[in-house]
Amino acid sequence: MAELTNAQNTLLKIKKNIPFFAKLSDGEILMIVHDVQFKKYNKFEVIFEQDSRDEEAFAVVKGRVNISVGEFQRIGLLERFANFKTIVNLPPRSVFGEMSAITGERRSARATAYDPDTMVISFMIDDDINDENAEVFIKMYKELIDIISDKLRKTNEVALKNQ
Question: How far apart (Å, rounded) are the C-alpha atoms in residues 21 and 33?
């Protein structure tokens, strides 16, 4: 087995603090997650833009992350999102950006650091399911379903309050 990076070692040390990873063994995490990086952001710094396309998922380690949605505007040849409205401020332990990482679809929202010195883990989820890792993917997808269900439930609660 290849030598682990500092980011992989750190992830394995703190995995119990992040629900997405908590039920996976070290070997299972290393089997399905790659390109692990710890990234530090300043307050209001953009982590990813709405409508961007990339394959990273993220987990908040320190600070909070603001998830917001903007309105699409076209002014002549200029196309952009503006008038952003906050959907949620994610606390530490939260996973975000997972839908684009899994589906390959464009980001449906923008993520920005809400606090100074916000720290996140970025990671890629392997998409090569085979006989050796199928059970690990089942565990991971079960956790993702729980995360997404919780987000949907909270979004519905906010929508009902705003009616």
Answer: 10
